[in-house]
Amino acid sequence: MTKPFMIGVAGGSSSGKTTISERLVELTGEQHLSRIELDSYYKDRSDETWEERSQADYDHPDAFDWDLLNDHLAALANGATVPVPIYDFADHNRSGETREVHPNRIVVVDGILVLYDRSLRERFDLKIFVDTAADIRLIRRIQRDVAERGRTTDSVIEQYLTTVKPAHERFIEPSKRHADVIIPEGGLNRPAIDVLLARVRELSVG
Description:
By secondary structure, this protein is α/β, with parallel strands linked by helices. It has one domain (5-205): Rossmann fold (3-Layer(aba) Sandwich). It has 7 helices and 7 strands, in the order E-H-E-H-H-E-E-E-H-E-H-H-E-H. The protein has a 5-stranded parallel beta sheet, covered by helices on one side. Strand 3 (82-88) and strand 4 form a beta hairpin. Helix 1 (17-28) packs parallel to helix 7 (190-205) and helix 5 crosses helix 6 (153-172). The protein is globular and about 50 Å long.
């Protein structure tokens, strides 16, 4: 197997990264494209209480297990299958289960900080930053976390003001300078997505 073409999709929380990644999978098919989410690589916090875990800053670079993610991407590049952790957002911890991700022609990694870590960033053949306005991202985050992650509106807003917004300004927004392509408005920017999909289509059939 030849070295996979690796794509990094970064951007603020709820900017539309998942929409773009899912469209890539939908277009090319799982037999050609493997997707990895940075959220799967939150550090294991089994030694902490639920209260301690709930107060942690999950938007800070220190929240992630960069070594494990880099090891997994290196393994995929060498043709190996990797056991990606499954994260439990309600429990603020790894679930203890994993899912197998197989090597493919294309590997997409999406997450808020995938362009922040230099060792990770250098693995990507194409670096994308999804640039969406803060008010839209906050509304989407409230809707998602209340519906899917068992949070209350007040807790989402408090977390946003305490950790999400400061981390975005300090770590995520500056990482945009490393992007090869910037997509405004995320999944709503159909022309930009169409151009990206065309490139991925070439890779998947090439």
